[in-house]
Specification:
Elements (H helix, E strand, L loop, with lengths): L1 H27 L2 H15 L6 H11 L5 H21 L15 E4 L1 H5 L8 E5 L6 H9 L4 E5 L5 H11 L5 E4 L2 H12 L3 E5 L8 E5 L2 E5 L2 H9 L2 E11 L2 E6 L11 H22 L14
Length: 296
């Protein structure tokens, strides 16, 4: 076991070193060039990796109407988007969302948050779609004090590197787990807001429909929103071309108030999954199909 642990540490260190070299390389390039090179590398290598078979299985089950050619096209596009996201991490500070003629067209966000009452608390949710880091940038660059609940990378060295890149965003980073639940409650009490991605499998979550099949889904967002009367805001970040995006804040999802808390949690998470499904159906190549989102 000790040898295996040592082997894992060596692998983690090696992957972490490679990631730092890659980040340094992409940082040296202008943003547009970095995004293009990252996409080119990923779409050339990614579809040939064994893990892409998981994406193909997920696509066949979620979108059975697709042909094999359609699936290959989507998988290639997924890797292109993922490679671009990685290459864009060292350049997150260059995204200024509210500047005229910038890289991100923002729709609906300021119209919602600028008219909030002082006591209003938002929970912004997005998915691993487009460049998902832009959703939190929209909140912090609008002057909101937010915590970002995230799933830590399996490799601690890679996780540290990603969080270094995220530091420019200006949010408080909180890894998922018991600490996150306590910190989220405290943050809401302090008048802060929450940003989170909601499209990952949680083994001890609740079954909620997603593409016609139950997917184990974390209920924390719904429980917090219902308990603290938060405004639940869907935030979609769609890649338009290269390193240019459209960020859309959709209308808040109404909080169900039937008196049955568990039923209300399920109903709210069903609406949240439906919002993410709508984004993915519209641009399937921009979602991260490599997740084990459904039971096998």
């Amino acid at each position: 076991m000790a040898e295996r642990g040592g082997a894992i540490r060596v692998r983690d260190w090696t992957e972490g070193l490679f990631a730092r070299v890659a980040f340094a390389f992409f940082h040296l390039l202008p943003l547009d060039a970095a995004s293009a090179v990252g996409g080119w590398l990923a779409r050339g290598i990614g579809p040939r990796l064994g893990i892409s078979n998981r994406a193909r299985v997920n696509l066949r089950r979620a979108l059975p109407e697709l042909t094999d050619a359609d699936i290959d096209h989507i998988v290639r596009g997924m890797w292109d988007n993922l490679g671009r996201v990685v290459a864009e991490y060292p350049h997150l500070g260059e995204f200024r969302l509210y500047e005229p003629d910038g890289r991100v067209t923002v729709e609906g966000f300021r119209e919602i948050v600028d008219v909030r009452r002082p006591e209003t608390r938002f929970i912004f949710f997005s998915a691993h779609f487009g460049n998902w880091e832009i959703a939190t940038l929209a909140a912090t660059q609008a002057g909101l004090d937010v915590i970002e609940i995230y799933r830590a990378a399996n490799n601690p060295f890679v996780d540290e590197l990603i969080n270094e890149a995220r530091s420019i965003v200006g949010s408080e980073l909180v890894p998922k787990g018991g600490v996150a639940a306590r910190r989220a409650i405290g943050a809401l009490g302090e008048g802060k807001h929450i940003c989170m991605l909601v499209d990952q499998k949680m083994n001890d979550g609740i079954p909620v429909p997603f593409f016609g099949r139950d997917a184990m889904t974390a209920p924390a967002l719904a429980r917090l929103a219902l308990r603290y009367d938060c405004v639940v805001l869907p935030c979609c970040v769609e890649r338009i071309r290269g390193a240019h995006f459209r960020f859309v804040a959709e209308p808040p999802i109404p909080l169900p108030r039937s008196g049955d808390v568990q039923a209300d949690v399920k109903r709210l998470m069903t609406a949240i999954n439906a919002a993410v499904e709508g984004w993915v159906r519209r641009r399937p190549e921009q979602w991260f199909w490599l997740h084990r989102r459904w039971p096998d």
